[in-house]
Amino acid sequence: MILCSSAMASQQAGKGGLSPELYSRAGEIIEADSPRITEIFKDIHQHPELGFAEVRTAGIVAKELTSLGFDVQTGIGKTGVLAILRNGKGPTVLYRADMDANAVKETADLPYASTTEVTLADGKVVPVSHMCGHDANVSWMLAMAHAMVELKDQWRGTLVIVGQPAEELIAGAAAMIEDGLYSRFGMPRPDYLIGQHTAPIPVGAVMAVDGVRSTGTDQLDVTFYGVGGHGSMPQHTIDPVLMASSAVVQYQSIISRNIDPQQPAVLTVGSIQSGSDNNVIPDKAILKINLRWFSESVREQLISGIKSINRSIAVANGVPESRMPTMRMKGHTTPMVNDPALTARLATSFKDLKNIQVIEKAPPAMASEDVHLLLGEYTDVPFSYTLIGVVSPKAFADAGFKPPYFNHNGDFLVELGAMPIGSLTATIAALELLGI
């Protein structure tokens, strides 16, 4: 188990601000609670829910936190949860975990694997599973909340917990803010915002890296409008499938020929939706697109390039002005940036944990997060997001010392040995900022 190393703690106590005794006590609480938290994790894993549909998961979060004495409010931004525990005068720490799953079929052979399927608004039936580890993120948060209640004599201030919906849609944080997270539901202005997320690195590895950690992103839908008809008479139609297919290929020229090669950018078409019959040319086609960028100027190039390509393809295919392609902007977030001082402080506190390898240097990822948008207008609040390894060290080694799978893949797997580690790092982070 990952209890504090007494010798190490004696040498480093004061660097992170926690005593060796507090490390040991926190470790004992987490160890005793680990079987319960593991069962909560398995339950959430087996019952995944897509963004803005996390009714069951939010219910679990609300029930657990209410039982611990938190002041809990639900239904924020549709399915978000806010929980506040006041424990005297001191800082206010906001801790967030995301709750939603992916429309991906789980392929890992687990006794608690997801077999969930849901019907989307368009009638399409899709598999649903936690292939990004938000089930672990939520479980770690609940373990931390329990430990902080047990340790109320060791800290002062206000602990605020948010169970956030729809991170995968890059829409949940903004939805909670727009619904009045601060103004209507009374969330206090935090002094710090922290959180954790699973990462496909070995169990025991903890990434606490400062600076820019992930890209900004946009989720958008492009719709091409054509003229439908019989598959045998394409001359009497305007084929939206052909236009959409051309667009998918041409979009990549924006990256390869318009954007500076030294500026990172990704443009992914994750879905093409059109028609239903073999012998019918449909009247429209939808492209679901994802953009990743660090620079606002690159973002503008990507969006303007998509618009230009859409229009040129439509004109070339004889689409009238009234039927030009449309573009619907959906989820959006800016790059995520870890505060250097706060991140270094947390990293130091993690170094006093036994069997933990703290990673403090790593390049930013092209993935994206909306956690920092929960700060709303308080953009000057220090923020830090820690990544927790969830891969079996043996599986990592067998794969050539690289991730054997990545987030959003059907094989994504959270090793159960990661559960007490994430629970303890979350607790130590909260204690570091609130401890007396």
TrEMBL record:
It holds the Pfam family Peptidase_M20. This is Amidohydrolase. The lineage of its organism: Bacteria, Pseudomonadati, Pseudomonadota, Gammaproteobacteria, Cellvibrionales. Its cofactor is Mn(2+). The keyword Ligase does not apply. The Mn(2+) ion enhances activity. Coiled coil: none annotated. It comes from the Bacteria. InterPro entries: Amidohydrolase, Bact_exopeptidase_dim_dom, Peptidase_M20, Peptidase_M20_dimer.
